[in-house]
Amino acid sequence: PPCRFPTAESSRLHPLLLGVAALLHPLLLGVAAAVAYVERLRKGQAWVPTIKLVIAYSQVISSIPSVYDVVMPDLFNDWIGWLNFFSFRWAFEVGVPSACVGGGLAERIAVYGLAPLVLMLALPLLAALYEGAMAAHARLTASARERSGRPRRTSDGLRGLLLRTVPGMLLIAFISLIAVSHRMFSVFDCMSFEADSLSSPPRSSDFVATDLSVACDDKEVWRGESSEYARVKLIAVLLIVVWPVGMPLAFVIVLFSLRHSFRTSRGTRLTRATSFLHREFEPPFFYWEPIVLGQR
After folding, report:
1. CA 18/CA 14 separation, integer angstroms
2. Who has greater pLDDT, 56 or 215?
3. Confidence at residue 247, expressed as pLDDT on a 0 to 100 scale
């Protein structure tokens, strides 16, 4: 399908710059979702575990056809169609349309895998801008506060700023982990097509199932060999290290660093900031979320 961004056809920018521009849409969506989540979390709402279960269930169900290479009946697709919303793959396709990224498959999967990371890193920056605006407003209204006798709001520094953005970053990672991992592993799924049925034995050619313009081969960049598929595999492997391997490992490290707080039931700012990972579990099973992510 053609790119739907109006300036894409006339732009002379590098294809990756178009991909960065496309990140603005999911950035706004993610910031709005993160802000809403943080506000509800502060109010002590108990809907977070339920939403996590719905997201996890929908992501697993929507992955069955591609993981097991089966064609599901129309009745199944009709019944679970509404769950596709909670898989959040649509957010990637809307925010980073393949036709607007340009380049080849390597550039598209790079943007697809880096977009959530850019969004996560942007949250502290946006929070810092917000804190700066609030500080400027406080200075303008300081004299009014002093006259009314109300205490002046103070900032708790960079650490407090980062802790306030942790819930939003965890939410983005939780939503993106399965979708990005699925896209990265899909580049190793090749389809075989018969190229010459008259030869003995018949010759066939393999192509990436998600992009039939890319031929599968055994070349590797680290051996000094060059091909489009070799570049695709290299980028996919690097992002697999970051997402399906690195993210759960990071969760494990964070949770085990807080194990003494869990065992003594002593809440800290960091345990409250990371409650997305352990809130619904009993203290002895604080580590269970990374295990569930590994299963998915």
Report:
1. 7
2. 215
3. 94
- Specify the pTM: 0.75
Distance from the first to the final alpha carbon of the chain: 31
pLDDT digit string (tens) for 91-101?
Answer: 555 555 556 66
Cβ contacts of 40 within 8 Å, gap of 6 or more: 47, 48
Comparing C-alpha atoms, which of 244, 243, 222, 242 is closest to residue 231?
Answer: 222
Pair type for strands 203-208 and 190-196: antiparallel
29 is written with which tokens? 């969506």
105 burial via Cβ count (<10 Å: 0-12, 13-18, 19+): buried
- Written as six digits, the tokens of 126 are 């946006």
Residue 184's pLDDT is what? 92
Structure tokens given for 193: 């097509």
| pLDDT number for residue 210 | 87
C-alpha angle 122/123/124, rounded to 5°? 95
Amino acid at 105: L
Tell me which residue of 102, 43, 104, 126 sits closest to 229, measured CA to CA.
104
CA angle 55, 108, 223 (to 5 degrees): 115
DSSP alpha helix (H) spans, the chain: 15-22, 24-42, 48-68, 74-80, 89-95, 98-101, 105-140, 142-148, 157-186, 228-240, 247-257, 259-263, 269-273, 275-278, 288-295
Q: Mean pLDDT, to the nearest integer, of 183-193?
A: 91
CA 137 to chain centre: 34
Cα 141 to its chain centre, rounded Å, is 39
